[in-house]
């Protein structure tokens, strides 16, 4: 049973989560295949903050390898978890994970199309080299989400089986197209590997990529926080939400666009990291109930915490080699999904 | 709730504590990390094998490398994993991935030699020269280059006199009763090697390594079939034998004449033992060229 | 006044509401009766703004309903649906608080918590305010939704000049007989405070006891309308529902009794 937290005390949940996140980020900075003392880490950060021209030997490892990755893990974790919570509100079902219902596949398809098609049409160079992949990925995500929503809505209600089956179909098509592209059409260099698109990786994230991701994710996350009240009303059904004064068509589009943009940008740069959007909201709901005004900000932080832990493990468990992060998130997320599926069995009758 | 996160935090900390110390060993001589089979073999051939402190999974020769820590698969390298070995020099090839990690390594201050993608004799020459210059073993590098070239020239001279160039299919994994094999198409290292050995790649309607069904194999009807054999990746000698007995393949020239050979997977690394590999393949082809 | 003027609506070729007019007046309770499939719920959708009529207009204080923003409309009318699809485990209090959603940030002087508290007391759910919605029985859930609707049209805050409307679609569904009366007493009480109440009912006697006026629908059309005394007669009931009915009087209250018809 969730705890009932009075509205005034909710702020403390956020403070506690933020504290855990910051502590973990600090810990993650000190964890890695290379042994670096806390003194050296402090020195690197001090040098960077004072724009000192003298830099100690481990500066690149902290500043160019670990820190961008940690910031990216926080951003991507928060983005995926909030996107998951938004979609679960929209679909009125806790199973609506961006990876499971096909949004990630849609984005990956968009990204692959962007990588292959645009250059073949002569559209390369300049800002396009940097922007084409994320833009195509986001477009793919938004398109697929609208499609899934239309296909799984039967008579004003969300048909859960249709939603999951549409996801299976989109994932299958996406997997096939990406497989075809990776093995037959483009060079491996351009397209990354098949495992990148299916399992994801934060390996080798550079500051400019973190910057571009933040440009989309930070406004998306902030806008999401404003959607708590209307999404609460949405859980009663679209008509009920309208009766409660929610501008349903507008909110619906806003939720689809924001969540799909956030998933799209993360897929473009970090591939298909699964289950964060399922696990983070579920933990928060189990602990504090389904109120989106609490759920959305708490999800942002718990998602960041989860992905930060997963990525720190990914880069250290098999050190000096690297583990695919999707393997870790799936090991935690898969059983979660099964558990939710069992709880939702009644609704799944086709 | 907070308990959950605390637990996660502690687990991740303990997981990590034991692993962070892998690289703690003091040495005075320079430390080299090699990534890629060709890169590793070049460094060892130039006599710097005792300075190598870590390799990747695709490095399988010489046997000493199995004792060294692995920095993972060449297509999924962690930059910090490489740097954590505190290398004074990294020798690798352009095949290193993922692209983001490659880009990042190129920005780091550690000296790295990027050998060209090892798939031609010229690429091997360039790699040998660059690494030789860096290690102060240029003379030795030239010697190896000349040996390799001489050896290849010799085989090529013989195959010039063959009545015909045998057609060859190379399988990364042989077709079996349960599925298609993966054959080397145009532009692959196996294709280049077949060419150097005096044969002709029978598969030239696709690029890279692609699945090839038994039926297409019957259609192509090669004179010789090679299967890459290795303990870690690639086929086992048993699977090569099993392939010969597949129904339908009895009529294929290579099977009928017994020209199905397992060849070491290492032959494809395009390292300093390239001459050896070309000779081995050439010897097999010679049987069918008469 | 919430008015429907000669409205029609159809699903595909089937006309479900056919040239219906009715008015929900502030301070009055209007009952809507009719057999299954007569178009009661569809008429409600037109009144609540959930659907737009194909012909005719629905107006609120003379202004077309569609000229209102969803939130402005929600501050003035609340709808209790027949069924709800809430699948997330809110507490009862959180569900009732949802009724205050359109009022948030409008008038800070209103004590939101007090309104929620009173609405829960009136729907007789105060004793399980902290329980989880999904653990409740059908009747209890119905009362929770009623409390949510009461909270939404609660008189006395921000805009006293503007009339408010409560639309109840079969509010007595799943309720025991005592709570059926509680529910309609609350509706009645709200009416005395100036709220206009429209209520779909199946029980003629509840309509006779609590409603001022009524509309009897049959096949999408109005078969009878007016005060309950004039419109809800044994003849109309027999005619519309095809059952034999007779009116008796008990302690000054009129009661409609339906009789089994021997085959």
UniProtKB/TrEMBL annotation, chain A:
Pfam families tied to this protein: FecCD
UniProt GO cellular component terms: plasma membrane
UniProt-listed SUPFAM superfamilies: ABC transporter involved in vitamin B12 uptake, BtuC
Positions of transmembrane segments: 12-31, 70-87, 99-121, 127-149, 161-185, 205-227, 254-282, 294-313, 325-342
GO BP annotations listed: siderophore-iron import into cell
Any GO MF annotation of the entry: transmembrane transporter activity
Domain of life of the source: Bacteria
Keywords: Cell membrane, Membrane, Transmembrane, Transmembrane helix, Transport
PANTHER family for this protein: ABC TRANSPORTER PERMEASE PROTEIN MJ0876-RELATED, FERRIC ENTEROBACTIN TRANSPORT SYSTEM PERMEASE PROTEIN
Similarity comment text for this entry: Belongs to the binding-protein-dependent transport system permease family. FecCD subfamily.
Protein name: Hemin ABC transporter permease
Lineage, highest ranks first: Bacteria, Pseudomonadati, Verrucomicrobiota, Opitutia, Puniceicoccales
Automatic annotation (TrEMBL), chain B:
Signal peptide: 1-26
Lineage: Bacteria, Pseudomonadati, Verrucomicrobiota, Opitutia, Puniceicoccales
Keywords, ordered alphabetically: Signal
Name the record gives this protein: Fe/B12 periplasmic-binding domain-containing protein
Pfam families: Peripla_BP_2
Family matches, as InterPro entries: ABC_Transporter_SBP, ABC_transptr_periplasmic_BD
Ranges where the Fe/B12 periplasmic-binding domain occurs: 31-290
Automatic annotation (TrEMBL), chain C:
Keyword set includes Cytoplasm: no
PROSITE patterns in the cross-refs: ABC_TRANSPORTER_2 (PS50893)
Source domain of life: Bacteria
CDD domains: ABC_Iron-Siderophores_B12_Hemin
Pfam families in UniProt: ABC_tran
Listed InterPro entries: AAA+_ATPase, ABC_transporter-like_ATP-bd, P-loop_NTPase
Keywords noted in UniProt: ATP-binding, Nucleotide-binding, Translocase, Transport
Chain ranges of the ABC transporter domain: 2-244
GO molecular function terms attached to this record: ATP binding; ATP hydrolysis activity
Role summary: Part of the ABC transporter complex HmuTUV involved in hemin import. Responsible for energy coupling to the transport system.
PANTHER family: HEMIN IMPORT ATP-BINDING PROTEIN HMUV
Listed name of the protein: Hemin import ATP-binding protein HmuV
Source species of the chain: Cerasicoccus arenae
Gene that this polypeptide is encoded by: hmuV
